């Protein structure tokens, strides 16, 4: 019959046999001697005792086995390891093996056991769920966090999953828990290794500080820094999402604009790029994309490194990105200056064409983008359209202004075309103006103005314009179709159109050429109130005339707008302008 001793380990009471107690006591004395030379030995000794208590607790079976015997202690010591085991491993032989592994680029050997899914308090942003999952699956925490953000963006499911895992997963509080979370065997050697790593980390963190703070001030400082850190992380998350969305938008913008250069047209086209040739436009678009995207990428990567504690960007890659950004800035400046120089000079070429005199001049517009089968053969001769399989939208321009001026009634009517363009030199601007193809076609008394003018193939857009001035003799009658209204200047087409009774259905307006220009023929319609007042005056006049038509002593005098009716001694005056009765 063996004596039993009651011991307390980690606030847990165990009954242990006397010989087992002696063995355990000797084992703990060896451990305390080894770890007693450090100031923080109390922490690691508590972790070791906690682990021993857990292992003893696993061997206790209520109702069957309630006493720890020598065999249990020896098994625990075997699993935990002797102090002499890892003291010898720190000798020369182990060091040589470790150096050999380091030279070969391999990590030191660590014995792994089954991992436990727990929250990691040492690498957390909120609750340590993502870092715990990363430890369990053996991947970097950044990928778990990115996946969680994606789930959050796709309906917010990531928030619910994170909360559930936060509740279900226990936190790795003790050193043994952290070792189990990483899959390391909780023995003395790994306890020592974990403790040394933490001590080294703390030593590096606080090496620049010359003093130590007490526990109260450290707690207050941690609380304050935690609040500030949480606010900072929220701001960093907002900036990270902002930078990521900008990078995505820039990439989409770049791809769609590049598609335009390769013939896949879409509405997302940056207008300044239309002033560049295809090759120059591709290079300028790339420079612009890099000049804006690289800073956003740098911001995105910097925030990612802060939030997810990733490694720094390779120095060669950083220098390459910086050099690309400088080159893109220089390239944008070059293309801006070069393009601005190509708008420096302006040239205008005037061409005058006589037209046949008509009793009535009809002016209409022909939309050359709408082709009739009967007109295809005559398009080239009439409107100078070359149907060579090219997309006409690349060459059509609509900056056309039409004016009407008066000349002497006996002079020959004519149309003057003014073609203008810009260029780096006056000669280049004149060549571009000369390449504009635009002229009205007279068919009887009707003059058809094309809806667009054409440029030669591969001609750059350099503010090409067409001004058309129609000179007609005084007194000429003019009919303007509604389709030509957007190009007419110096007259109010819609004001004249509103003079017609059915303005919405009216398809043309009539004009007369005066010394000051075109004048609308249609007079303004009277207002409804004026019409009612005039009808009332007429009805009163009719009633009075009916009264006096049989009386011979009645006299009617009309003086301008005044009508006076005298009946015997009475007289009635009606003013048709003021609608007053006296």
Describe what you observe in this structure:
The protein has 582 residues and is of the alpha+beta class. The protein is built from 17 helices and 19 strands. The protein has a six-stranded mixed β-sheet with strand order 9-10-5-13-14-15. A four-stranded mixed β-sheet has the order 4-8-12-7, covered by helices on one side. A four-stranded antiparallel β-sheet has the order 16-17-18-19, with helices on one face. Strand 18 (570-575) and strand 19 form a beta hairpin. The chain is elongated and about 155 Å long. The N and C termini lie far apart (146 Å). The model is unreliable at 98-113, 208-213, 385-391 and 576-582 (pLDDT under 50).
Number of helices: 17
Radius of gyration in whole Å, from Cα? 48 Å
Major β-sheet profile: 6 strands, mixed
Class computed from helices, strands and strand pairing: alpha+beta
Distance between the termini: 146 Å
Shape: elongated
Ranges where pLDDT stays below 50 over 5 or more residues in a row are: 98-113, 208-213, 385-391, 576-582
Report strand %. Answer: 15-25%
What would the average pLDDT be, to the nearest integer?
76
Total strands: the figure is: 19
Query: Order of strands across the widest beta sheet?
Result: 9-10-5-13-14-15
Helix content: 40-55%
